[in-house]
Amino acid sequence: MASFRDNVLRIVKKIPRRKVMTYKEVAELAENPKAYRAVGNILNKNYDLSIPCHRVIRSDGSLGGYNRGE
Predict the structure, then answer these.
(1) Considering 11, 26, 30, 53, which one is annotated as catalytic?
(2) Residue 16 a catalytic site member
């Protein structure tokens, strides 16, 4: 069974170019809808360039604080 972290990274890796998802949408797809802050923490600690963290945004449409961003 995959961990929540593994699920989050797998989901984010599948976000197509020119598309975005919110932290909440990723959490819902990872089967833990209230864990959107955990999604942010996971992505903030991710340094794998194959995971497009910049495609995950806040629910209000603003950029999140991923580690290669703001």
Answers:
(1) 53
(2) no
